[in-house]
Amino acid sequence: MAMPPGPRAFLAPRPGRRAPRPRRHGEPGGHGVAPAPPEEVGARPGLRALARLLPQQHLEAGYICERRDLLVNGCCNVNVPGTKQYRCDGCLPHGCCGAYEYCVSCCLQPSKQLLLERFLNRAAVAFQNLFMAVEDHFELCLAKCRTSSQSVQHENTYRDPIAKYCYGESPPELFPA
Predict the structure, then answer these.
(1) Mind listing the pLDDT tens digit for each residue in 21-32?
(2) From 46, 54, 85, 118, which residue has the greatest number of CB atoms within 10 Å?
């Protein structure tokens, strides 16, 4: 029996851990991502799908929680004080963040939807196929927050080595290499 729609959850990133890689075409998984424990992925960072939804909730919202606050269905327990919605920890005013999970959570704020619509309307032809394939605000935030060519300089270093996950309209500020 399928559960009705509800909030999608992210785990708070662990200090010193890299952000999860994006799901590859055809790879199983849901719509949410979180760093998987090393024992689940052979001691490598990876994805943990969090597509199961909480009952009696009709939101698609970015919750961040600690691993200990996950429910058995893989979603954050929204009744725990540490679970927060629309977290922007480590995000700069121009929309670049230090952690992928916080980038997506911050991007999901309803106030950011107009910014994302403007981006879609102005997306370069090369990116239109990528971004037009997204089905909702959540998937657009997942795609925008992945690192891209706009996040790097000289094809091998990040423009901003700390805030490299961006949902904003502008690329990260250029730092000296």
Answers:
(1) 444 444 333 333
(2) 54
pTM above 0.70, yes or no: no
Nearest by Cα to 5 from 65, 73, 69: 73
Domain boundaries, the chain: 1-85, 90-177
Evaluate whether 172 touches 166 at the Cβ level (below 8 Å): yes
Handedness of CA 109, 115, 121, 124 (dihedral sign): negative
CA distance 5 to 7: 7
Return d(Cα 91, Cα 151) in angstroms, integer.
14
Sign of the Cα torsion 133, 21, 13, 81 reads positive
**Which residues are paired to 153 by β-bridges?**
157
pLDDT in tens, 129-162: 666 677 788 888 888 888 777 788 887 888 888 8
CB 164 within 8 A of CB 96: yes
- Mark 74-108 as b/e (b = at least 16 C-beta within 10 Å): bbbbbeeeebbbbbbebbbeebbbbbbbbbbbbbb
What is the per-residue DSSP string for 54-89?
-TT-----EEEE-GGGB-TTSSB-TTSTT-EES--T
Q: How far is CA 21 from the centre of its chain?
A: 10
